[in-house]
UniProtKB/TrEMBL annotation:
Sorted UniProt keywords: DNA-binding, Transcription, Transcription regulation
UniProt DNA-binding region: 38-57
Highest taxon, organism lineage: Bacteria
Protein name in the entry: TetR family transcriptional regulator
Higher taxonomy: Bacteria, Pseudomonadati, Pseudomonadota, Gammaproteobacteria, Alteromonadales
One of the record's GO molecular function terms: DNA binding
Record-annotated HTH tetR-type domain positions: 15-75
Length: 207
């Protein structure tokens, strides 16, 4: 008698289940942090058994890895919008600045990012994933700022790296400011951030 063939899962259903688990895990991490949220709570929030979850993710660390990968996809989508913008790079980045501000001031979504940063101090794998994400983000920004549409296309490497790091530092710091100062608004931030960003995206003798 032939063994019963294993039923193949529809790829669309499998992806939907993965998204369901990732959404539930992110919610649990927001409430209790990475260490406080166990697989039992994640499975309860997702509405499925822990055994079912292990069909898609072998560990809680694998879930974090997928959350980071999802963040990377969203980040690359934003960079693609900048690259597809019909104007020059300065106009593209300034026009899309509010998108970045909204994303970095969303304390509901970004609190998981804070927890992952804390976990990176204890977990070498998570630290490696976050650093790889940062490398890829800086690479995309470097490509954008040295493209033919950019006024910084002939900038020296050291100065370019300095500007990119300052830009990323400003954006990443918005979440901390929002946590410490909940009254902070997007509109208030953009009053000072737009001219500061414009200075960083132009040759200093033209800023």
């Amino acid at each position: 008698m032939k063994p019963k063939a294993k039923r193949q899962t529809d790829p669309a259903i499998a992806q939907a289940r993965r998204e369901q688990i990732l959404t539930a895990a992110a919610e649990c991490f927001r409430r209790k942090g990475y260490h406080g949220a166990g697989m039992a709570e994640i499975s309860k929030t997702a509405g499925m058994s822990a055994g079912h979850i292990y069909n898609y993710f072998e560990s809680k660390e694998a879930i974090i890895e997928s959350i980071i990968e999802k963040d990377m996809e969203e980040m690359f989508s934003i960079f693609q919008q900048f690259e597809d913008h019909p104007g020059d790079v300065l106009a593209a980045l300034l026009d899309g600045l509010n998108i970045g501000v909204q994303r970095h001031m969303d304390t509901g979504a970004c609190v998981v990012d804070l927890d992952m940063m804390a976990e990176a101090g204890r977990n070498a794998k998570v630290a490696s994933l976050l650093r790889d994400m940062d490398i890829q983000a800086r690479t995309r920004m470097r490509q954008l700022l040295t493209s033919e549409r950019s006024t910084l296309k002939n900038i020296e490497e050291q100065e370019l790296e300095s500007r990119i790091n300052v830009i990323f530092s400003m954006m990443a710091g918005l979440l901390l400011r929002k946590v410490l100062y909940p009254e902070l608004t997007e509109e208030t931030v953009l009053i000072a951030l737009r001219p500061a960003m414009k200075t960083l995206l132009m040759p200093f003798d033209e800023a």
